[in-house]
Amino acid sequence: MLSEGENAYSFEVNPLASKTDIRRAVEELFEVRVIDVRTQNRKGKPRRHKVHIGHTRSWKKAIVKLHEDDRIAFY
């Protein structure tokens, strides 16, 4: 829905990557113009398997908004 309505795409990125790193990487890989980068640090959720208690891994999510003329075709 983000890609259709707001021309924004979400990616799982390295937790150490900054917004400028993400912007450069997307512009270079997909040859598009990036308008805005928003990031979220997603915390791992607790999970249980029988008697063992653990967590899913934490990860970083980047939502990248592109120029209105640019698109990324994944298919």
What is this structure, in a nutshell?
It is built from two helices and five strands. It has 75 residues and is of the alpha+beta class.
Architecture overview:
β3 (46-49) and β4 form a beta hairpin. The strands form two sheets. This protein has a three-stranded antiparallel beta sheet. Strands 3-4 form a two-stranded antiparallel ribbon. The protein starts with a helix and ends in a 9-residue tail after the last strand. The mean pLDDT is 94. It is elongated, with a radius of gyration of 16 Å. The chain has two helices and five strands; from the N terminus they run αβαββββ. The chain has a single domain (2-66), classed as RRM (RNA recognition motif) domain (Alpha-Beta Plaits). It is of the alpha+beta class. Helices cover 21% and strands 41% of the residues.
Topology diagram in text:
Elements: H1 2-5, E1 8-13, H2 19-30, E2 34-42, E3 46-49, E4 52-55, E5 59-66
Instruction: Characterize the biggest β-sheet.
Output: 3 strands, antiparallel
- Helix % is 10-25%
**CATH architecture group name:** 2-Layer Sandwich
Low-confidence stretches: none
Report the structural category. Answer: alpha+beta
Strand content: 35-45%
Number of strands: 5
Strand order of the largest sheet: 1-5-2
Give the number of domains.
1
Cα shape: elongated
Number of helices: 2
- Superfamily at the CATH H level? RRM (RNA recognition motif) domain
Arithmetic mean pLDDT? 94
User: For the record, what CATH class applies?
Assistant: Alpha Beta
Measure the end-to-end span: 16 Å
**Radius of gyration, rounded?**
16 Å
* CATH T-level topology: Alpha-Beta Plaits
Order of helices and strands: HEHEEEE
